[in-house]
Amino acid sequence: MQLNTRTWGSGDKSAVLVHGIMSDSRTWRRVGPALAERGYRVVAVDLRGHGASPRGEYSPALFARDLVDTLTERADVAIGHSLGGLALSLAVDRLRPCRAVYCDPVWATSAPDRRVNAAAFVEGKHATREHIARLNPSWDEADIDVELATLADWDPDTSHFLGDRPLLGFLPAHPVVPSLVQLADPSFLIGPEDAAHLRKSHFEVRTVPGAGHTIHRDDFDGFMKSLEGWI
């Protein structure tokens, strides 16, 4: 599957951005231009079932395969958020970016007894502006506009692969390429034990103080500062 892409910049370096579930490439509205200003040619994808990309069957393996089919050039840095971090981690051995950044990725959980309810994601598709603003008090109006637009273009069937199961993902045994893991404060996906495992496995792990799960929208400045040495 060829994914829809959005681009910024024309620099000598290249960057890839992969969004999380219920979102699309528009979520990177500030990150893309910021990287372009730093000399990057930036490509952000819409995962299948999101944005303007085709629909189809949905699974982590398929999200990863689409990245490989679409992103044929080796990137200097690849950044994936949440589900995008999971998809990137499953494709990184084939994409082989020079560096990878995983933003609060769906790998494991800080609460092993917590379960995923796909129906909750489906209900989120119909969130109102007021509800989004209440859940995300640090967002500005433009971020809320983007959230409403991306929800409208999102296929809720993408959440069905989650089913009703423990919130457990795919904690990597080791990094395939030099890798940074950015964590929310606190992260409801990567708990202290998993963060310690990642550090021992030679991932660099950084927490963005006070940031929620969508780090790049909750604290853009903190997000960019956390990338120092990686971009």
TrEMBL record:
Name of the protein in its database record: Alpha/beta hydrolase
GO molecular function: hydrolase activity
Lineage summary: Bacteria, Bacillati, Actinomycetota, Actinomycetes, Kitasatosporales
Organism name: Streptomyces phaeochromogenes
Domain of life: Bacteria
Keywords from the named record: Hydrolase
Family (UniProt): Belongs to the peptidase S33 family.
Pfam families: Abhydrolase_6
Xref: PANTHER family: 2-SUCCINYL-6-HYDROXY-2,4-CYCLOHEXADIENE-1-CARBOXYLATE SYNTHASE (PTHR43248), PROLYL AMINOPEPTIDASE (PTHR43248:SF2)
InterPro entries associated with the record: AB_hydrolase_1, AB_hydrolase_fold, Serine_prot/Carboxylest_S33
AB hydrolase-1 domain boundaries: 16-219
